[in-house]
């Protein structure tokens, strides 16, 4: 007699034979959000659908519309892409194919190979990928020893992975195989290629863009236009990382072991200071009176504004910082989001009329009393902070809507110098596993919120989806309108953040919904060797998050 297990799904308990796969069980249900089931949440732990039910449990199936599901879809597509490009071009003609960074719905990949990137080549790669999807190939998973993994990657010429695994503490690792093509991926995989039907492959200069659906429309590829300014900012950061020979976690760990960390930190900080100096010179040359700074959460906008102000002073200008947050509407007038909660990130949360009236008056040479918003009482207050602009005075305005002309609708466009700032990490885990910029920003925020607001990890992680929605609506659509982009990511910072973030993440309990994300981040941080923060300069953007900044941040 076969063993029977009880499985609770959607509040209903069903009985299944022990050993039945989650994939088989999932076929009895229909996704409600337009995506496909790609993972199973079993007793609040993510599991691949190929896993089997072994004991009584509670299951919720995760779709490609959800964050964990979308990441899994992306991971599977990258492995399909890698198998296709190695098949078309030939392993003997490829030195390396690096998955570099995200360009909206596209992932930019940089091949180093003997053949040029052409439309003909990307069409062949796409056709080969479609062939694999039609075959519905299984993502086979096997566990091997870490030493065996190092030898395997060395034999494949995947030296970034070989370097990464030299610093792994675990004795075993999981390798995925797709019809004999073996690779390592950080995270879960789909059950098979059949569900990976939505993608496109296009050339971009000497690289290739793999286009994927977004979470909102998981079965649709939207028209794609390369965000050129973002692309060139990311490209420059990658070139600098390669010049420093620190483009992967393995290379960073090697530098730490070799005692090069102090030199690396000082070089990185000087490089950022040079970039801020160049931006200040551009502002001086433009003659513009309004500097508008915007960027997503935890980009380091406040420290950047302070450092830019100092650089502007060296050019004979007198900067005056203006925080758009001081123009919040009265708390009871704050608009509500779709969940009925105050939406502080909506443009309507700002009293744009008062903001424009004050800025227009300042530009006209009038004296204006500037407000300060009291976040405790929810009221705007006036405490005698009067300002009159002189001939060399300049306003440095910082807020999430800074690049949106609807914020500053009455101010002349020719008076605005727009800056977009974000933490666009150039560091990859290895050649096929990139580090999403959102992960870096979330870690920064976890550390800062725990230090300055006493917020536990679960609270910060729980708020993050709402923060991300606000960014998608209010910041990212306007980033290409910036006159200049500044990358605030520091190539060394994850080795510093590690020791600050781990206690916060370990504080998330197993029974909390946020535990899955906390566990994922802890596994991610395990790749890094930790470094003492004493060597980080006091003016560093990183100090805004870990504490000890020389600025009032």
From TrEMBL:
Residue spans crossing the bilayer: none
PROSITE patterns according to UniProt: TGS
TGS domain segment(s): 1-63
Chain segments annotated as coiled-coil in the UniProt record: none
Alphabetical keyword list: Kinase, Transferase
One Pfam family cited in the UniProt record for this chain: PRK
Any GO MF annotation of the entry: kinase activity
InterPro entries found in the cross-reference section: Beta-grasp_dom_sf (IPR012675), P-loop_NTPase (IPR027417), PRK/URK (IPR006083), TGS (IPR004095), TGS-like (IPR012676), Thr/Ala-tRNA-synth_IIc_edit (IPR018163)
Name of protein: Uridine kinase
